[in-house]
Design a protein that fits this description.
This protein is α/β, with parallel strands linked by helices. The chain contains six helices and 18 strands. The strands form two sheets. The chain has a 16-stranded mixed β-sheet, covered by helices on one side. The protein has a two-stranded parallel ribbon with strand order 12-14. Strand 15, helix 6 and strand 16 form a beta-alpha-beta unit. The protein is elongated, with a radius of gyration of 23 Å.
Length: 309
């Protein structure tokens, strides 16, 4: 479990660095000398596997002062635009998150790294191509305002998980991720098309302009639609023959006309629908006899009300 280390108490709480270290300065400058001394005095300092810092300069300093050979997870957050070259020395790094909205300093060449999970804000020139060449990359999270051209530069990738958050892109149509198991799009207010996304698990949240017909795909087994305001047509589900689980929740209302369209999903095993009235849930359970239909309070199967599962 990550522990929060206050700069003012850093020398009294060195034991918290047994397996992880979270340096959270809350906007205050870090006393690097005191932090390094605290870690060096702690025998478990070299065992740190996870580090959250608000300045990359601090990461560089720690890397020189300590044998961080076991460091696997690094999260950089804050407003500082510092040198990222220190990341190249972390040969064991597996997860990297750079939560900086605007950067003027590029990432180093990470194509030969073993990073499997990357979370990153807008990239600079040539970075999308570099990310596309990271052969070990399996999970990618894109945050803030990414241009659509970025997705083209990322293809092809051997990703198994892709998440896009608060992006300004309007279309996802050229992404070639043939092994994709999970795709999520959250807060993409301009997104109108997800054509070409072929994943087993699809999660869409607050993308109210999205044409749901573009979500059709034979590989989709789990589909979640959240904060979509109102859905009047679920006819696209006929093009999702392998759909097993459906969730429509969080400020998303469904038209009663969607009942028969949802029932057309022949492989449906469970539907969590928070935008239908009780009588519509029961009617759906009659049509989709083998499926569990629920809204969190009422649960039906085969037209009969049953105990929640």
């Amino acid at each position: 479990m990550e522990q929060e280390i206050e700069e003012s108490t850093i020398t009294q709480r060195t034991a918290l660095f047994e397996r992880t270290a979270l340096v959270n300065t809350r906007g205050k400058p870090v006393d690097e000398e005191r932090l390094i001394t605290a870690l060096q005095q702690n025998p478990s300092g070299s065992k740190v596997v996870s580090l959250h810092v608000s300045e990359t300069s601090l990461l560089k300093t720690l890397g020189v002062a300590l044998p961080l050979k076991n460091l696997q997870h690094v999260r950089i957050a804050g407003r500082h635009l510092c040198d990222y070259q220190a990341l190249r020395a972390l040969g064991g790094l597996r997860e990297l998150t750079v939560e900086v909205q605007r950067r003027s300093v590029p990432l180093p060449d990470l194509t030969q790294s073993k990073i499997a999970q990357l979370g990153i804000g807008p990239t600079l020139k040539n970075e999308p191509a570099m990310i596309g060449g990271m052969k070990s990359l399996r999970t990618l999270v894109l945050v803030y305002a990414w241009p659509e051209s970025t997705l083209r530069a990322l293809s092809p990738l051997t990703l198994i998980s892709l998440e896009i958050k608060t992006s300004t892109i309007s279309e996802i149509g050229e992404l070639d991720c043939r092994e994709l198991a999970f795709f999520a799009c959250r807060g993409c207010v301009r997104l109108v098309s997800a054509h070409g996304v072929d994943a087993e698990n699809v999660d869409v949240d607050t993308c109210r302009k999205l044409d749901l017909k573009t979500l059709s795909g034979e590989r989709i087994k789990v589909l979640a639609l959240r904060n979509m305001k109102r859905i009047d047509d679920m006819g696209f589900l006929k093009n999702c023959p392998n759909l097993e689980e459906l969730e429509v929740a969080a400020a998303t209302r469904l038209s009663p006309d969607c009942v028969t369209q949802i029932a057309a999903a022949k492989q449906l095993a469970r539907a969590d629908l928070y935008g239908l009235k009780k009588q519509d849930l029961q009617r759906l359970s009659t049509l989709a006899k083998d499926a569990v239909i629920t809204d969190g309070w009422n649960t039906f199967r085969g037209g009969l009300e049953v105990a929640p599962e």
